[in-house]
Design brief:
Shape: elongated
Order of helices and strands: HHHHEHHEEEEEEEEHEEEEEEEEEH
Radius of gyration: 25 Å
Number of strands: 18
Number of helices: 8
Largest sheet: 6 strands, antiparallel
Distance between the termini: 17 Å
Helix content: 10-25%
Amino acid sequence: MEACMDFLDRLDPDILLKIFTYVDDPYDLVRVSSVSRSWRHFVIANGLWKQLCLRKFSQLSRVTHVVELNKCWAVGAAEVGSSHSKEWEYLERDDRAYALLARASTTFIDRDCISKAISASSTDNYPEESIYNTLHPTDNVLWRTSYWSSKGQSNPAVPETLVYKLADDFCVITEINLRPFQVYFHEGLPIYSAKSVRFRMGHPKSPTDSGNDLLGYSLPDSVDDKFIWTYTSQEFPMAQESHLQKFRLPEPVLCVGGILQIELLGRVQRCEIDGLYYICISFVQVLGRPLSPALGVEILEPCGKFVLKIKNDRPFELQAQSNHTVTGSVAEAS
C-alpha cells in the first residue's frame, strides 16, 4: 500500500502558519491537533491556540507568562518523557492555557455578571437616589421608587459615569443593558435618559484599591481616577424610552481586573421644577461569563501587565467533547 504523505512536510512553514491564521473556531483547531502527532506538534510549537486567543482578545497581549497552579493534569510532558527542554514545557503549558481560555470564552450561556456598585460621578439625593438602586430589576422596591439620579446641570453636555465591580476579576462580557427611569411623579412623565452611552473595562491602579475596598466611598464622590481602562467601546445611541435597552458589544470583550465603567453622554430631559438637566437610570444589567475557577489573573503593577493562571484541577476536555465531530480515521504519524 502506498504510504500516506503529510502535507506539513510539503509546504513552507510560513505558508502553513498563514493558512492556520484562518482557523478561528476552537473546535476546528482541536480537529487540526487530532490529525496526527506531527500536526499536534505543529500546533504546540507555533502557539496556534495563543494566536487564536490574541486575535479574539487584544487584551491578552499584556500577558507576561502562564502559571499552572495544579500540575497534576499536565500530561504533555509525561507522555514524551524527560528529554524535553524547558522551552518545550513552556510551549505545552501555554498550549493548555490558551486552549482552555478559547473554549471557556466562546462556548457559554450568558449570565448576569454584576457583583456590586462602586461609585457614581454625582448623585442628587444620597442615599435615596444612589447607584445601589440600579442593581434592582424593578424600579419599585418595598413600595419606594428605586433609581439613580445625577445632579442637575444647566449644560446638557455634561457627562456622568457609573462604576461597577463585576462577578470575577477575569470574565468575558458580551452585552450591557440599561433602563432609563421614567419619573411618574412629575408632570408629563418625563424620561431622563442620556443621548448615548459608552463602556470601559479595566482594573484598579493598585491592588489595595480593589472593588471591595472602594465600596463605602462617600457617594457621589467619583473614584474613576483609581482605575486603568484597558477597553473602551464605541458610542451607542440611547433612546428616550423607559424599557430595558440592550447594547450588544460587536465582539465579546475580555475584562481583566473586573471593573466596568458606564459613561452616560449628553442629557435630553430638563426638569420643569428647577430647569436643570438630569440623567436617571433604574436598572443596569451586564451579561457574560466569569472565567474562574478554571482561569485567573494576577495584575502586575505599575506596568499593568498580568500573569495568566490555570486553576482547573481537571484535564482540559475540549478534545474529548468534540471527538464526535472529527470524521474519518486518525493517522498516527511517527
